[in-house]
């Protein structure tokens, strides 16, 4: 149940029997040859597929996140940490005010994790609520599936290259890039980050066969669905 396919009356009726919902979090940032909306596309899609048939509504993904490191790549837009936390506060508080008490956050962008640390403050103000923060791509089962396939997996590499994140007419390079020194990269300003990274892939192949990617995707959807069904304290 995607919110864009519902009206307010349908949500009001739903709330008489369901207090769960899903809020995907994405980002708009460089992903080498992939869509700038990769994190948003993946977070919303895994959320929708995980909730399919459950009767739990999935809200549209928040398409902007915290990504100052990639500011030198055109098309990347970053929110300040304070702005982002205020946005999360407004969204979660709005959901709570309407009657949602169990909220699954499906996060698609590592830079958004300051929100995970802040979440305890919100829960302290809303003791009747339960919120799960799920970084879908590196959750235990999904990350294990990635590592079994190819341990050299990273930002903008093959592990984010799905049919729905590719761009028509854009070919992926064949090279297997060595892994960048992430700790050193975090010390650099945006222009130097772009100089070091080049196309934006942190390391590894840019693409693997779709049959392999489908196995990882199935694990990600199943792991997310398990949290939605039975991950509540």
UniProtKB/TrEMBL annotation:
<keyword id="KW-0479">Metal-binding</keyword>
<keyword id="KW-0862">Zinc</keyword>
<dbReference type="InterPro" id="IPR024087">
    <property type="entry name" value="Creatininase-like_sf"/>
</dbReference>
<dbReference type="Pfam" id="PF02633">
    <property type="entry name" value="Creatininase"/>
</dbReference>
<keyword id="KW-0378">Hydrolase</keyword>
<protein>
    <recommendedName>
        <fullName>Creatininase</fullName>
    </recommendedName>
</protein>
<comment type="similarity">
    <text>Belongs to the creatininase superfamily.</text>
</comment>
<dbReference type="InterPro" id="IPR003785">
    <property type="entry name" value="Creatininase/forma_Hydrolase"/>
</dbReference>
